[in-house]
TrEMBL record:
Keywords: Iron, Metal-binding. This is Pirin family protein. Residues 4-99 form the Pirin N-terminal domain. Binds 1 Fe cation per subunit. The lineage of its organism: Bacteria, Bacillati, Actinomycetota, Actinomycetes, Micrococcales. One of its GO terms (molecular function) is metal ion binding.
Length: 286
């Protein structure tokens, strides 16, 4: 599968508590992600095209489609798998994001939620779906543990809208499809955002103006700056090297910490070797 990673970047490890942002697709493919573990994060799966079967060690077994949200909270440990439906290659396109859990929640129990009906915010020429968190006073039903927003915004052809932002939060935009121009400079200078770009907006903005000639779908990320250290390696989000080593050893030993993914047998993804250096927290440079 072709996968494009927008976050983390060398100089930008997080946007709010968002610490990971992948897009797999658009493509025709057979998706087979065997059971694998997570700690210290929430996974947010947002399909664009196709269907994905999610199974996890809590006993969840659901098929997710366009317009529905899967949000999985690892807490101290969970494992899951993700399959496309059928044995033949089929169209598939989706966003997958991680939210770093804060200290008060990352050692807790695992959880899984599925939401098929999400609230929307109407603008003149656009409609925003609030996937997680809060936008313009509208709140998603998905459980989150830090002040945050994740929203899909669909613009009509020829639209010009102002997206309201919270000044104390940082934000970023990505273009999913179509064309978009962001008017973000001091004098409102236009900047065209390309497909798969992550346009970082920073702090201290009460709103951002965007326009589209042919119509567009955007995804907005944002939240209160995440003040805790983050050490990311493989599928783990921790705080230091030793914590990551311990989680890897538990997975390789088949520890009950990660449970067993429902309806699977012995198949699983083995952990890669640890690097020959000590893992350190990522530091932002922007």
């Amino acid at each position: 599968m072709a996968v494009h990673r927008s976050l983390p970047q060398r100089d930008l490890p997080t946007v709010g508590a968002w610490c990971f942002f992948d897009r797999f697709g658009p493509q025709d493919t057979v998706m087979r992600v065997e059971p694998h573990p997570h700690i210290g994060l929430q996974t947010v799966t947002w399909p664009l095209v196709g269907e994905i079967r999610h199974r996890d060690s809590l006993g969840s077994d659901v098929t997710i489609r366009r317009g529905a949200l899967n949000i999985m909270t690892s807490g101290r440990g969970i494992s899951h798998s993700e399959y496309s439906l059928g044995d033949d290659a089929a169209p598939l396109d989706a966003l997958q994001l991680w939210i770093a859990l804060p200290e008060h929640r990352r050692h807790g129990r695992a959880d899984f939620e599925r939401h098929e009906h999400l609230p929307t915010v109407a603008f003149d020429g656009a409609l925003a779906t609030v996937v997680v968190g809060e936008l313009a006073g509208v709140v998603s039903p998905a459980t989150v543990h830090t002040p945050i927003v994740g929203a899909e915004i669909a613009l009509e052809p020829g639209a010009r809208i102002r997206i309201p932002l919270r000044r104390e939060w940082e934000h970023a935009l990505t273009l999913v499809e179509g064309d978009v121009t962001v008017h973000a400079g001091r004098e409102g200078e236009p900047t065209s955002v390309g497909a798969l770009d992550l346009f970082y907006l920073g702090l201290n903005r009460e709103g951002i103006d965007v326009t589209s000639d042919t119509g567009a779908v955007l995804f907005l990320l944002g939240g209160e700056p995440f003040g805790e250290d983050v050490v990311m390696w493989w599928n783990f989000v921790g705080r230091d090297h030793d914590e990551i080593v311990e989680a890897r050893e538990h997975w390789e030993a088949g520890s009950e910490r990660f449970g067993h993914v429902t309806t699977h047998g012995a198949e699983r993804i083995p952990a890669p070797p640890m690097p020959q250096v000590r893992l350190m927290p990522r530091r932002r440079k922007v």
